[in-house]
């Protein structure tokens, strides 16, 4: 007996699930679930809402910065045929046609192997740049693509509906002034990903979303996405030109994208006929060009392998493996050391059943393996492989590692956030996994991105104060005077301010601010800084 709706033979129930999934993906991708969308001459336009997080992290590119690349295996990846338990009679009994024989594996260890199609990863494993987390999942799993994807990206419990993503909450909490003073550095970037819940916060979607590598190339090469030169002088085309120009003006990051894209270059050849190669080559190039984005999201689809899984799944694993290998070869070119700053992590909404179905495929299952890549992370296994000795015809073996423990480890140890923030982002405490990734200490405040340096009386101008601040990257900026209760009395500056050190001459009488004790607030690069001033 299979879970109803999880297999093709369940007919309309399975088709209905996919229709719901596709409908939501369409709405999410087109912006209808967020800031709205429109069509310009048949071309989709989304609201590109900048990020608090990594845009401002981008303001301070230095040797301590770390980057996270998330690869979504869309559809539910079959973990048991990704990392195989060698010599397991239970595995081959459960999968008489899908079991991959030992002579077609390369050895991770005496006990585990991977298909030869993934042998591009063999050197990463040997060099201590790859780990496997076994059977990642959550209690009482949901087997709907739509619902389980929401659970995985929101970091919620099964019966809890959360409409924000774990990365979105992290960014929003860290960069509270993003909407008032957005940075000019590109935010977190997602390329060709259908759902954007991962970056959704209460106020905005925190990622720059481009639907394809071609769309990114268009921005990088021209600074705009929608061409206007070919439009005629007709009323219709004049109106279309205006709308397109308005949309193009929203690409505040175009200059930084173009500069990083032209500064960086790919020093290795990425494999062709590989859907993951183009986005991974873009990410490598802009990292090398110091664009400053710290979180990336890409996806590779078709992991919903209900029918004739063997060749299709192996082809997908080969694409993943060759693209990741080329990515790290490119980052490490010339002994740059960049490969040590970049952690890549796969995730999928669920795994597949431990048994094969009647169509030489697998149906929606529980946990699946997560793969980690990065210079200096070491190699090895985390968690417990699925127990195949007691197959359940309805359910799958219980998960080994809660996916939120993985998130906690990445947030705290890789990105360097304090435990209190990690608990807030994930909704409740989750343990970190000892030794999963090299730990870095929490950042010491926000002054790496901007700084409110303080104030002093002007040495020669009576009744005038010098308010001093510094930016490591140009940013929209607001400087305000507040009363004791925190109400804004005056906005002294509301403008784009270039990077560097700046002094604002504040004459209280000119701004009709009587003597007293006040606060002055600087909002820049998505962050808030505040000090007290006595007038």
Please give a structural write-up.
- By secondary structure, this protein is of the alpha/beta class.
- It has helices at 12-30, 53-57, 89-94, 122-126, 145-154, 166-174, 213-222, 235-249, 254-263, 277-288, 309-332, 403-414, 419-426; strands spanning 37-40, 43-46, 67-73, 84-85, 105-107, 112-115, 129-137, 188-191, 207-210, 295-300, 342-347, 368-373, 378-382, 401-402, 450-457, 465-471, 475-482, 488-497, 500-506, 517-524, 527-534.
- Helices cover 27% and strands 23% of the residues.
- α6 (166-174) packs across α13 and α10 runs parallel beside α11 (309-332).
- Mean pLDDT is 83; it is low at 16-64.
- It folds into two domains: 49-218 and 254-426, Alkaline Phosphatase, subunit A; 450-534, Immunoglobulin-like (Sandwich), CATH 2.60.40.4070.
- Strands 3, 7, 8, 9, 10, 11, 12, 13 and 14 form a nine-stranded mixed β-sheet that branches.
- β15 and β16 (465-471) form a beta hairpin.
- The chain is built from 13 helices and 21 strands.
- The N and C termini lie far apart (77 Å).
For the record, what CATH class of the largest domain applies? Alpha Beta
Distance linking N and C termini? 77 Å
Sheet with the most strands, sense and barrel status: 9 strands, mixed
Helix content: 25-40%
The CATH topology of the largest domain comes to Alkaline Phosphatase, subunit A
CA-based gyration radius: 25 Å
- CATH arch. level architecture of the largest domain: 3-Layer(aba) Sandwich
């Amino acid at each position: 007996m299979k879970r109803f709706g999880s297999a093709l033979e369940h007919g309309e129930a399975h088709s209905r699930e996919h229709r719901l999934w596709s409908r939501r993906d369409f709405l999410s991708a087109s912006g209808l679930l967020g800031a709205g969308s429109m069509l310009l001459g048949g071309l989709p336009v989304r609201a590109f809402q900048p990020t608090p997080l990594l845009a401002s992290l981008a303001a301070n590119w230095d040797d301590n910065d770390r980057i996270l690349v998330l690869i979504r295996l869309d559809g539910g990846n079959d973990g048991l045929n990704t990392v195989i338990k060698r010599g397991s009679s239970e595995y081959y009994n459960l999968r008489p046609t899908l079991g991959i024989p030992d002579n077609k594996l390369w050895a991770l260890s005496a006990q585990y192997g991977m298909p030869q199609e993934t042998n591009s990863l063999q050197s990463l494993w040997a060099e201590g740049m790859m780990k496997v987390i076994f059977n990642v999942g959550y209690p009482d799993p949901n087997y709907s693509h739509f619902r389980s994807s929401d659970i995985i990206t929101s970091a919620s419990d099964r019966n809890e509906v959360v409409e924000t993503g774990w990365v979105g909450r992290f960014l929003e909490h860290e960069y509270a002034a993003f909407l008032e003073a957005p940075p000019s550095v590109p935010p977190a970037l997602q390329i060709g990903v259908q759902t954007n819940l991962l970056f959704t916060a209460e106020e905005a979607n925190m990622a720059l979303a481009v639907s394809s590598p071609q769309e990114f190339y268009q921005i990088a090469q021209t600074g705009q996405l929608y061409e206007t030169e070919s439009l005629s002088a007709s009323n219709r085309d004049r109106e279309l030109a205006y709308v397109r120009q308005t949309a193009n003006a929203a690409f505040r990051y175009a200059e930084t994208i173009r500069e990083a894209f032209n500064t960086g270059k790919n020093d290795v050849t990425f494999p062709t006929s590989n859907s993951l190669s183009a986005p991974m080559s873009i990410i490598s190039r802009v990292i090398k060009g110091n664009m400053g984005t710290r979180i990336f999201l890409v996806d590779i689809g078709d992991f919903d392998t209900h029918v004739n899984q063997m060749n299709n799944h192996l082809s997908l694993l080969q694409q993943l493996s060759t693209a990741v290998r080329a990515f790290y070869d490119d980052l490490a070119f010339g002994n740059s050391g960049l490969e040590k700053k970049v952690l890549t992590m796969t995730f999928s909404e669920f795994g597949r059943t431990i048994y094969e179905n009647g169509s030489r495929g697998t149906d929606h299952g529980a946990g699946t393996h997560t793969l980690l890549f990065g210079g200096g992370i070491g190699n090895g296994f985390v968690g417990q492989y699925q127990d195949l000795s007691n197959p359940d015809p309805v359910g799958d073996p219980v998960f080994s590692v809660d996916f939120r423990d993985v998130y906690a480890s990445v947030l705290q140890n890789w990105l360097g956030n304090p435990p209190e923030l990690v608990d807030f982002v994930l909704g409740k405490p989750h343990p970190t996994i000892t030794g999963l990734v090299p730990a870095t200490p929490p950042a010491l405040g926000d002054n790496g991105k901007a700084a409110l340096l303080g104030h002093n009386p002007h040495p020669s101008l009576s009744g005038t104060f010098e308010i001093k601040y510094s930016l490591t990257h140009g940013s929209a900026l607001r400087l305000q005077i507040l009363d004791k209760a925190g109400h804004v009395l005056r906005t002294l500056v509301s403008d784009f301010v270039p990077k560097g050190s700046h002094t604002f001459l504040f004459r209280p009488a000119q701004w009709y601010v009587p003597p007293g004790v006040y606060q002055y607030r600087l909002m820049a690069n998505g962050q808030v800084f505040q000090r007290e001033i006595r007038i």
